[in-house]
Design a protein that fits this description.
Blueprint: E1 2-6, E2 16-19, E3 30-39, H1 41-48, E4 61-62, E5 66-74, E6 86-92, E7 98-106, H2 113-117, H3 120-133, E8 140-144, H4 149-160, E9 164-169, H5 174-179, E10 183-186, H6 191-196, E11 203-206, H7 213-220, E12 226-228, E13 240-241, H8 248-260, E14 268-272, H9 277-286, E15 292-296
Parallel strand pairs: 8-9, 8-11, 9-10, 11-12, 12-13, 14-15
Antiparallel strand pairs: 1-2, 1-4, 3-5, 3-7, 3-15, 5-6, 6-7
GO molecular function, one term: RNA binding
Subunit structure: Homotetramer.
Organism: Streptomyces californicus
Amino acid sequence: MKKVSYAAFGGPDVLDLIDAEEPHAGPGRIRVSVRAAGVNPVDWRLREGQALGAHPVELPAGVGLDAAGVVDEVGEGVTDVAVGDRVFGEGADTYAEFAVLSAWAPMPDGLSFAEAAGYPSVVETALRIIDEVGVRPGQKLLVSGASGGVGSAVLQIARERGVTVIGTAGAANQDYLRELGALATTYGDGWVERVRGLGPVDAALDLAGSGVIPDLVALTGDPAKVVTIADLGAPEFGVRFSGVAGSVPDALAEAASLIARGRLHIPVEKSYALTEAAAAHADSRAGHTRGRRVIVI
């Protein structure tokens, strides 16, 4: 089978499309014929050699956590799916023609494989950090870097929970944030004052890692009210870096429910072929994403 892999840490150019042995579903696992794989910042952070404790890397390594596809192998003990079912979920080395998933759920009706592949890690992360930052109904949450996949999910899930959200993003994505129910403002010079003009902030999330941690602490008044998924230096300011996943099956079930009720929609901004994985990583790292990027196989 074809699979994206890298034998050394580095830039996007270390990615190679190789011929690899097919993986197989062990106990409690399933294998899917991958139709699409989500592109997440963790993918290129690991490829660069960033030390993310929740995701140890042994070289040579495959790429990708999220996938949507058709079940073609069911491991021992798995009873909730059958060969031929359409699922989305999380596993390992999903930039490939076949991948083993450790968590999955039936694909919601009406979703394409490309759309479904964009949800698993994104929704798990969004649910986790909303809970970790402790924001409650009636409060105001600031989301720095709000237009990407996780930000899109946070805005919609928080809105569903009765939380008011202020989102920062580039000028081109202001209308997009408003469509998701956020109070929108741009980052850049004067952004702290613009946020203050939208009212007091009870909690804040840093999704972009753009050096804003001290400002978020100042806006909330307490480092315990700030969580980041992007700034590894945040603990120096007393701010929690969240990198360990919670319950992916629970997140998938909640995602499916929200999607089915029309309460969650994350658009696919751009799709790539397996041969374009390096371009997908470069684009993801550059930021300014509106929604999700996916590999289509």
